[in-house]
Amino acid sequence: MAAAFAAATFAFVCIQLAPGDPVTALGEGVPEAVRDRLRAVYGYDSSIGTQYIRWLAALLRGDFGFSTAQQRPALDVVLDALGNSLVIVLPGVALAMLFGMLLGAWQGIHAKTRGDRIVSTFMAALYAMPEFSLALILLLLFSVIWPVLPAGGMVDDMHAYYAPWKQVSDRVRHLVMPVLVIALVDAAALARYQRQSMRDVLDQPFVRAAYGAGLPSRLVRMQAWRASLLPVLTLLGILLPVNLLGVVFVEQAFAWPGLGLAFFNAINARDYAVVAACVIVEGVVIAIAGFAVELLREAADPRLRLHEADYQRGHG
Amino acid sequence: MLKRVAVPPGLWLMLSLVLVAVAAPWFAPYDPNATLDIIALKNQAPSLDHPFGTDPYSRDVLSRVLHGARVSLGFAFATVILALGAGTLYGSAMAFASPFMGTVLRRLLDVAFSVPRLLVLLAVAGVAGPLDVRLLVVLMAGTGWFATARLVHDEITALRTREFVLAARASGVPATRLVVRHLLPHLGPLLMTAASFSMAGTIMLEAGLSYLGLGIQPPTASWGNIIRDGAGLIQTHWWLTVFPVLATVIPIMTCNAAGDALRDRFAPPQFAGSAIPSPSNPPRGRIPSLFRQ
User: Fold this and answer.
1) What are B32-79's pLDDT values in tens digits?
2) Does residue B275 belong to the interface with chain A, where contact is any CB pair within 8 Å?
3) Helix-strand-coil percent breakdown of chain B, rounded to 5?
C-alpha cells in the first residue's frame, strides 16, 4: 500500500515536471482563451502543491480524478483496461505454467538426451524472442500466410450484429493469438528454470534414498517434481507483475485495449489522473499477485507451513 | 567437477556479430538512410540486388539491418558497461559501509527493486518526449544496475570471511585497495555472466522501446524501429518484419547461451553459495537462476 502510494507520488511529480499539460496536448488551433478556461475547469491552473494536496484528498475519498482525454472517471478507464489485460494475461500465464512446469520437468529428467537438446534449442529461441517479435511472427503465420485468425482488436467490426453463439466464438478467436504469445514466452522462461530445478532436485540425497528403497521411478519423479516447484513458483511471482505491464508490447501488436496501452496513451495525452490511477492499480495488483504466489508456495512446500506453525506455537 | 570446454560455437557467432556491427559501413551495399529511387524501388520484394528487399521509402533493408546492428549492439554494450560499473560500485559500497549506512543502502535498493523497470522507462521516455541516444543509455543503465549491485554485495559478503581477505586485512590493506586488487578479480566470472544476460535483456528492451516509438528515433536505424516501420505493412510486405526480427533474436540467443556457458563453467566451485536464488534471495527479472543450486 505504502509502495503504491510512493509510486503514485513519483508518477504525479514526474508527469508534472514534464513540459505540457492535458490542455497543450489538445493540439494546435485552440485559442489561448479556451485553453485557459479549460485549465480553470480541470484545476490545472493552481500551483503544483495545491494540485497534489487536492489530488491526495480526493484519493482518500476514493476519487481517482477525471480523465481529460476520455471524459469519464479515471478509475473507470483503468479498470476497463485492467479487465482487458487480465483476459489475456491470466489464461496466458496459466497455460505457461502448465506447459513450462511439465516440459521443464520432462527435460530435467531426460537432461542431455537428444529430445532434451531439441526442446532446449527451441525453448532458447522462444526465450530470446521479444514479445512483440513473436506477436508479429504469429500474425504473419496465422493471419497473412494462413488467414485463420483475426489480425487485431477484441472483436470484429460487425460483432454487434452476430448471433450470440457467433459473438462468443468471435471473442475467442480474437483471444487466441495474444494469449498464445504470453503463454509461449513465459513457458520458455519457466521451462528453462524448471529444467534446472528438476536436475538439482534429482541430485539430492532423498531422491537417491527413495530409489534405493525400491520405490517405482514414477513415484520418485512425482515427489522430486513437487520439491522442484518451489524456486519456479518464486519466478512466477516475478512473471505475473512483469507481464501486466510488459503486455504493452503484445497489446500494441494486436491493438488490444489493455492496461499497458492505456498507460502509454495516457502519458502521451498528458492525462494525469489516468497515469496516477494506472500506477496505483498496478501496485495493488502486484501486491495481490505476490500474496497469491505466497499461498501457492505454501501449498507446494509443507516446510513453509511448518515454520509458521512453530512460530505461532512459540509465541502463543 | 570443473570441465575444460573448447571454444563454444556461440563464441564464434558472437565474434562475427561484433564484426558485422563494427564493419557495417563496409559490408552494407547501400547507405542505410538513402532513398534509392522512391518510385521504382519502393517496397521491392527480396532480390539479388536487395537481398532483404526495400522499404516504403525505397531504402535497402539489408543495409538498414546491418547498420541497425551497430546502433542496437553498441547501445546495449554501452548500457551494460555503465550498469555493471554502477552496480559494482554500489554493491561494494553496501558491503563495506558501516552497519547503519549498509542498512540505508540496502533499503534504498529494495525500494528501487519494487518499482517495475518498464514503468519507469515508459513514464520517463514518454513524458520527456523522444530522448537523445546518450540520455536513453543513461536511463536504461540507471534502471538496470540493481541486480548487479545485489549480486556483487552478496558475493563480497561471502568472500570477506575467506582466508586471503583476512590475511590482506591483517596486513593492513586499506578497504579500497582490498576491493580493487583482491576482491574484484574474484568477481570477474560473476560479472561476465551477469553482463551476458544483461546484454540480452537490454537488446530486447531497447527493441521493445523503439518498437513503441520511445527508443531510438528514426531515421537512425535500430532493429526495433525497423520492425516498427514494417509492422503496419505486415499484411503485404513480410520482408520488412522477418529479417529485422531474426536480426534481433540471434544476438539475444547468443548472449543467453554465452551466459549459460559461463555460469556452468564458473559457478559451482567458485561461488560460496551466496547468489543462489532462494526464498530469501529470489531471482529478479527475466534471468532464471544466475547460479546453480
Assistant:
1) 888 887 787 888 888 888 888 888 888 888 999 999 998 999 999 999
2) no
3) 65, 0, 35
Q: How far is B176 from chain A (nearest CA, A)?
A: 35
Q: If you search the block for the grid coordinates 554485495, which residue do you land on?
A: B153
Q: Taking CB atoms and an 8 Å limit, are B118 and A3 in contact across chains?
A: no
Is the separation of the CB atoms in B147 and A37 below 8 Å?
no
Task: State whether residue A230 sits within 8 Å of chain B by CB.
Answer: yes
What residues pair up with A67 in beta bridges, in sequence order?
A72
B chain contacts of residue A144, beta-carbon cutoff 8 Å: 234-235, 238
The pLDDT confidence band at residue B282, using thresholds 50, 70 and 90, is very low
Partners of B126 on chain A (C-beta within 8 Å) are: 264, 267-268
The answer to whether A297 contacts chain B (CB < 8 Å) is yes
> A11 touching B, CB under 8 A?
yes
Contact between chains at B208 and A130 (C-beta distance less than 8 A) = yes
**Separation between Cα atoms, residue B111 and residue B89, nearest integer Å:** 18
Q: What grid cell was written down for A193? A: 528454470
Name chain B contacts of A196, Cβ cutoff 8 Å. Answer: 288-289, 292-293
Name the percent of chain B lying above pLDDT 70: 87
- pLDDT, tens digit, for every residue of A56-99? 888 778 788 888 778 888 889 999 999 999 999 999 999 999 99
* B147-159 b/e (C-beta count within 10 Å ≥ 16 → b): bbbbbbbbbbbbb
- CB distance A249–B211 less than 8 Å? yes
Look at phi and psi of residue A253 and say left if phi exceeds 0, alpha if psi is from -120 to 50, else beta: alpha
Angle formed by the axes of helices A131-139 and B184-212, to 10°? 40
Residue B232 sits at the chain A interface (C-beta within 8 Å): no
Q: Say yes or no: ipTM exceeds 0.90.
A: no
> How many Cβ atoms sit within 10 Å of the Cβ of residue A216?
10
Residue A123 contacts residue A189 (beta carbons within 8 Å): no
Q: How far, in Å, CA of A156 to CA of B234, rounded? A: 19
